[in-house]
Amino acid sequence: MKLPHCQELITKVSKGVLYITLNRPHKKNAMNLALVNELISVVDCVKDKRSIRVIVIRGAENNFCSGGDISGMNFDGASETHDPMWLFNRTFGKMITLVNSAPQVVVTVLEGVVLGGGIGLACISDVAIADINTKFAMPETRLGIVPAQIAPFVVSRIGLMQTRRLTLLGESIYGEEAKALGFVHYVTQNQDELETQLKNVIVKIMLCAPEANALTKKLILQVGLVEHEQLLDEAASYFCNSLKNEGKEGTAAFLEKRSASWIN
Amino acid sequence: MKLPHCQELITKVSKGVLYITLNRPHKKNAMNLALVNELISVVDCVKDKRSIRVIVIRGAENNFCSGGDISGMNFDGASETHDPMWLFNRTFGKMITLVNSAPQVVVTVLEGVVLGGGIGLACISDVAIADINTKFAMPETRLGIVPAQIAPFVVSRIGLMQTRRLTLLGESIYGEEAKALGFVHYVTQNQDELETQLKNVIVKIMLCAPEANALTKKLILQVGLVEHEQLLDEAASYFCNSLKNEGKEGTAAFLEKRSASWIN
Amino acid sequence: MKLPHCQELITKVSKGVLYITLNRPHKKNAMNLALVNELISVVDCVKDKRSIRVIVIRGAENNFCSGGDISGMNFDGASETHDPMWLFNRTFGKMITLVNSAPQVVVTVLEGVVLGGGIGLACISDVAIADINTKFAMPETRLGIVPAQIAPFVVSRIGLMQTRRLTLLGESIYGEEAKALGFVHYVTQNQDELETQLKNVIVKIMLCAPEANALTKKLILQVGLVEHEQLLDEAASYFCNSLKNEGKEGTAAFLEKRSASWIN
C-alpha cells in the first residue's frame, strides 16, 4: 500500500493494521503543523481501504505526545480567521475530527506524557491503552492559553464535570485515574503488559467484520446529532446492509462452528 | 386488571407492580418478533394506569435475554423501509423507545446472559440489578451484523467512550464492570441477594408519589432534547402541578409524621 | 469591593476569592426566595470583575444546604407562569443557571446535608469537595413534589442513568459514592482535610491565568449546544486572543523559569 511520504511520522502497514508513530522524540513528540498535516494525509488516504482494519497511534521513545509545539507559535497574530495562528490552531481540531470518524478502529497507546493536544487524540480513540505511570494533563491555562481545539473533545469523552476541574486547575492525573475518569479503557503495569494488551485488542478487533465495524462506528458517532427516530430508521438500513453481506457469512460460520472469512 | 394475552411473555400484577418475564428459556429468552410486539402491547396497555407504579422485567430460568433470535432472520432482504427484515429490526428500537418512556419505574433483573437486544432493554431501565456473574456483550459485529437498534441506547446509557470498545471489539464484561461502566445500579453476590435487592428497590419506589415520579421521569428524559430555559419553564409547571396535588398530602404527612396516602 | 448587602448570605472577599456562606443554619441552610435572589445579585455583581478569580460556596455550621424551604410554599397556587409558586420555583433554576456560567472558578464545599436544591448548586460547581459523611439526596418525590429545577442539572452532571435511580427512589448516597457517580471531585476524611483540600484547590486555580480560565469555561459550556465545526472555529479565536495577551506572558515566564504575573 502506498502511503503519503512523512517527515514527522513513521508509518507501517502489517496484517491489516496501520501503525503510526509520532516521531519527534526530542520534543516528546510535540505536534507541529507538519506533523498534524501528515496525520491528516495518512488517515485520509486509508479511509476507503477496508483492508486496513485498525489504526494504532503511539509516540516514539515511550512518550505519547507533549501537546502542540509552542516554539512554532507567533504571539502577535490577529484572532481572525485566516490569521496564521488561527489556522495553526484550527488545524489541530480538523485533524482530531478526522481521526475521530476514521472507519477503522483507532487504538492509542499512551506512554510517558499525554498533554494538551495529545489528550485530544487520546479522546477520540476507540480503544485507549495507558501505562499506570502515564501522565495526563491540560496545562494550557497555566501558560495563559485556552486549550481550544482540545477541550471540546475532552468534554465529549469524559463529560463536562471532570473537564471543568482538569482545564481550570491544570491538574495532572495518572493511569488509574485516567481510566476511572473515562479517558482510557485499559491500564497496564509495565511495558510488557502494554504490548500484550495491544496485541489482544488487535486480535479481538480482527474477530469483528470490517464493514459491520465501520457501519457501527458511523452509527454511534451520530447519537445526539441525528434525531432519535430518524437515527433508528437509518440504523435499520445499516442492519439490513450488514445482514445480506457479512452477516450471511458470519452467521453461517457461527452455525458451522468455523471461523468467518474475515478472521486470519 | 386486563392485560393483553401473551405467548412469549408471562405477566403478573401484584401490589402495584407489573411483573413481565421473557419466556423463551430454550433460547435463553432470545427475542423474536412476537415477543417484541407483546412487550409493546403490555407496556402500552398500562401507560395511563397510575395504579401500576413499577414494571419489573426479567427472563425465565435465570437468563435475562440472549438478544434477537437470529433463526428468524432472512439474509436476502432488501435494506429499504417496509422490507420485512428492516421492519423486524426497527421494531426492536420501537419497543425499547416505548419502554424507555413508560411513566412507571422500570426495573430490570439481569441474570445469566444480557446480549445484544437484551442490553438495549437493560439500558433504558430506571433501575438495573445484576448478579455478579451476569455476562454482558454485544457480539453482533463478530457475526458480521450491526447492533443497529441497540448501540444508540448504549451510547445514551454509558457514553460513547465505552460503547466504542464494546461494539467494535465484541468484548464481554461481567457484573462489577457493568456497574463501573454505568449499565447497572446494583450488583449482588447471589440469587438471594438479588431478590432482596429487588424487594428493597420496590419498597423505595413505593415511598415516592406515583404522579410526581411520572412527571420527574418525563422531565429528565427531555434534558438535551428541549432547550434549557424552555425545559426549566415546563419544569416549574410540573412543580406547581405536583405541589397542589400529591405535594399537599406529602408535606402534610411529613409534618404530621405519618405515612403519605400512596404508601401501603 | 462593594458587594450587595445580604441578609441570608455572608460574603467575604480575600486574595482574589469571593467566599459566600449560605447562612440559615437553623434550617440547615434551606433556601428561601430571599437567599436565592441574594445569590443571584452577588454572583452577577462580580461577573465582569476578573480580579475575583474564585467563588467558594459553602453553608453555615457544617451543613451545605437542605434544599428549598418548604415552609414558604403555598400549595394552592395555579401552575401558570406568573403564579407566585411558579416564579418561586423557576427562580431556583435561574440562579443555578447563572452560577453555572460564572466566569470565575466556582468551588463548592459540601458538608453535612446536600439535598434537593443543594444538589443543584453542587452540580454546577467547577470543583466540588465533599466530606466522606456528607449526605446527598433528592427526597422530593417522597414528598409528592417534582425536583423540577434541580433534576435537569443532575442529568447534566452525572448522566441520565443514575439520575433515574436517585430521583425515582429518593435514595441517599454519601461522599465516596457521590464521587464515584460524578457529583464531586474530591472526598476528604475529616474537617481538617477538607479545609486543606480547599486551600490546595485555590492554589492551583491561582496558577492558571484568569482570562484563559474564563474563556476555557465559556468554551466547554458550549459543547453540545453549538455545532461542532462552528465551536472549533470560535475556539480558535479564543486561542488567538489568549495567546497574544496572557499567553505571551505565560510562555515567557515558562521559558524564563519564573512565575507568571497572575501568580501571587
From TrEMBL, chains A, B, C:
Which Pfam families does the record match to this protein?
A: ECH_1
| Protein family (similarity comment) | Belongs to the enoyl-CoA hydratase/isomerase family.
The Gene Ontology biological process terms listed for this entry are: isoprenoid catabolic process
Looking up InterPro entries in the UniProt record yields: ClpP/crotonase-like_dom_sf (IPR029045), Enoyl-CoA_hydra/iso (IPR001753), Enoyl-CoA_hydra_C (IPR014748), Enoyl-CoA_Hydratase/Isomerase (IPR051683)
List the molecular function annotations (GO) for this entry.
catalytic activity
According to its UniProt entry, this protein's organism is Paraglaciecola chathamensis
Protein name per UniProt:
Isohexenylglutaconyl-CoA hydratase
